[in-house]
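Researcher: Here's the sequence for the chain we discussed earlier.
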Amino acid sequence: MRAIRLLTLLLALLMLGGCGYNQIQSKDEAVKAGWSEVLNQYQRRADLVPNLVNTVKGYAQHEESVFTQVTEARAKVGQINLTADDLSDESKMKAFQQAQGELSSALSRLMVVSENYPQLKADGLFQNLQAQLEGTENRVTVARNRYIGLIQDYNTYIRSFPTNLTAKMFGYKPKANFSVENEKQISTAPTVDFSKPAQPSQ
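Model: Thanks. This is the structure I predict for it:
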């Protein structure tokens, strides 16, 4: 009787190994790690915002509406917590993506404001913060692209036969990816061209 149980257990383990269960685990963990890196880079960007806003404020006190937009967009980003466990929820992913897009737009407007203030553009602290922001935006793009690839690999794998049977049996569902909507806006880093002549404030 014990031998039959051991044989049944051994067969079950062999079946699980051959039906993609272990690969699903591996790909799921890769997706979670990729998502953690996306969040890490977005947090790095959010952490730069207060210093950047304060530096620009020192030279451009009359641009209050822009500062308000950036501050509100950063606050909205902080309110949306999308964990790796939420990645199957497309509506949460869209809300996250929209909030990040709004922050990108607000930061771009802040960078445009700096064009009107030659002293600000020459400020060493501002230049350092601007370089950090551009570097972070590049890291965000790299992390997002890696995550998109991991999601595509994971979703394709769990939808393919016969792995899809194993995925359904254990409750693994396709995970949401970044949508095409606002993709260009989010993935474009704010730019400042210091070679352009300063324009007078409106």
